[in-house]
């Protein structure tokens, strides 16, 4: 039985859900921070984009790991 092939769609789904939650939290906290201190908007926005990029990179890594072939026992 090829269990890796059966778990790959689950890995894709969890990676996308986790990434979506992470990006939502990052953007929400950035908006909240800009509302509190508008003078820091440029710096906060830069940090937000870096955080989004790292979060999406983790999603792509998780999807890539799902394609790694494992030897059959």
UniProtKB/TrEMBL annotation:
Transmembrane feature ranges: 6-27, 47-70
PANTHER family per the UniProt record, alphabetical: ATP SYNTHASE LIPID-BINDING PROTEIN, MITOCHONDRIAL, ATPASE PROTEIN 9
GO terms for cellular component: plasma membrane; proton-transporting ATP synthase complex; proton-transporting two-sector ATPase complex, proton-transporting domain
Major location category of this protein: membrane
Record-given protein name: ATP synthase subunit c
Domain called V-ATPase proteolipid subunit C-like: residue spans: 10-68
Compartment(s): Cell membrane
GO molecular function terms attached to this record: lipid binding; proton-transporting ATP synthase activity, rotational mechanism
Site-annotated residues for Reversibly protonated during proton transport: 56
HAMAP family for this protein: ATP_synth_c_bact (MF_01396)
Keyword Transferase in record: no
Family classification: Belongs to the ATPase C chain family.
Function: Key component of the F(0) channel; it plays a direct role in translocation across the membrane. A homomeric c-ring of between 10-14 subunits forms the central stalk rotor element with the F(1) delta and epsilon subunits. F(1)F(0) ATP synthase produces ATP from ADP in the presence of a proton or sodium gradient. F-type ATPases consist of two structural domains, F(1) containing the extramembraneous catalytic core and F(0) containing the membrane proton channel, linked together by a central stalk and a peripheral stalk. During catalysis, ATP synthesis in the catalytic domain of F(1) is coupled via a rotary mechanism of the central stalk subunits to proton translocation.
UniProtKB keywords: ATP synthesis, Cell membrane, CF(0), Hydrogen ion transport, Ion transport, Lipid-binding, Membrane, Transmembrane, Transmembrane helix, Transport
Species: Protaetiibacter intestinalis
Membrane topology, from the record: Multi-pass membrane protein
A UniProt-annotated Pfam family: ATP-synt_C
Keyword field contains Cell membrane: yes
InterPro entries for the chain: ATP_synth_csu_bac/chlpt, ATP_synth_F0_csu, ATP_synth_F0_csu_DDCD_BS, ATP_synth_F0_csu_sf, ATPase_proteolipid_c-like_dom, F/V-ATP_Csub_sf
């Amino acid at each position: 039985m090829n269990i890796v092939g059966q778990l790959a769609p689950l890995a894709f789904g969890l990676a996308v859900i986790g990434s979506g939650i992470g990006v939502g939290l990052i953007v929400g906290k950035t908006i909240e921070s800009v509302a509190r201190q508008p003078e820091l908007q440029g710096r906060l926005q830069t940090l937000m984009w870096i955080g989004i990029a790292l979060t999406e990179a983790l999603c792509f890594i998780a999807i890539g790991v799902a394609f790694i072939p494992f030897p059959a026992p």
